[in-house]
Design goal:
This is Nucleotidyltransferase domain-containing protein. By secondary structure, this protein is an alpha+beta fold. It has a four-stranded mixed β-sheet with strand order 3-2-1-4, with helices on both faces. Helix 8 crosses helix 10 and helix 11 packs antiparallel against helix 12. The protein is globular and about 55 Å long. It starts with a helix and ends with a helix.
């Protein structure tokens, strides 16, 4: 078995899905594009999604229903199909840098930078690239909504799911690493895991280096062993997040972000401490 086989299988799912959306949406689909690690490299069979972008002529309720129904049907076909993650919006909205479906700014940036056409027309040059400030606000808002909840904060100090779920373990460890690195790129370019990890491990003051290396190995197929993971999490996860929170809070203040978002990061830091 070659190391390329998991990525090949995942791309086949993406192509299959693109044709399914083309059939369901007809002329309303302008193009379907491969995103994420399958587009720019570094796909992990253990942790990566199969990211697909749909550019549409319109994004009304009937389109939403067709996309959601097609996605649900595809995800029922196999465990690999369940990795399918679909972003979609109308071309007019993408030209104006707004979202009228499900297409966050970071994924719009990935479409413009790295999207690969699977079916339909290539209109990536028409997609408005989000500004770095928009990407910062989006990633910070995601962190507060998804990672700063009471449930997740409790998991950080008394892990259960983190010890057995490869996808959640790698995402929990590497989200802050990618957010930190993305904040250093001059255009706010979307970072992939490999380059973010390399940058992070080169920082002289970065905590939890061994935990980040372990997450890198798990992404590459290393077995997730609770006896190995638990002490790494206990020693490194909270310091990693407090390091991220400090840097992100500083950037938010410097860019004039809403005070409630700055306060949310301060509150998160206190709860972790």
């Amino acid at each position: 078995m070659t190391t390329t086989e998991p990525a090949v299988a995942a791309r086949e799912i993406a192509v299959e899905a693109a044709h399914a959306y083309q059939e369901a949406l007809g002329e309303r689909l302008i193009g379907a594009y491969l995103l994420g690690s399958l587009a720019y490299g570094g796909y992990s069979a253990a942790a990566s999604d199969i990211d697909l972008a749909l550019v549409l002529t319109e994004a009304g309720d009937d389109v939403r229903s067709a996309v959601e129904a097609t996605t649900a049907a595809l995800q029922e076909r196999s465990p690999l199909h369940r990795k399918l993650s679909v972003f979609w919006a109308s071309l007019p909205a993408l030209r104006e840098g707004r979202e009228d479906g499900r297409f966050p700014a970071l994924d719009r940036l990935q479409l413009a930078d790295d999207g690969r056409v699977l079916v339909g027309s290539d209109v990536r040059a028409e997609v408005a690239r989000p500004e770095a400030a928009e990407l910062l606000l989006e990633s910070a808002g995601f962190a507060i909504a998804v990672l700063a909840t009471d449930e997740v904060t409790a998991e950080f100090t008394a892990p259960k799911r983190l010890l057995v779920d490869k996808v959640w373990f790698t995402k929990a460890v590497l989200f802050p690493v990618r957010f930190l690195y993305s904040g250093t790129t001059p255009t706010g370019r979307a970072a992939n895991n490999d380059e973010a990890i390399e940058w992070y491990l080169a920082q002289p003051d970065a905590p939890a280096a061994s935990l980040v290396r372990l997450a890198q190995r798990v992404r590459a197929g290393h077995q997730l062993e609770p006896a190995e993971v638990e002490p790494e999490l206990a020693a490194g996860l909270v310091p990693l997040y407090r390091y991220y929170i400090e840097a992100e809070s500083r950037r938010l203040r410097e860019t004039g972000a809403p005070q409630e978002l700055v306060d949310a990061f301060a509150g998160w830091d206190k709860r972790l401490g």
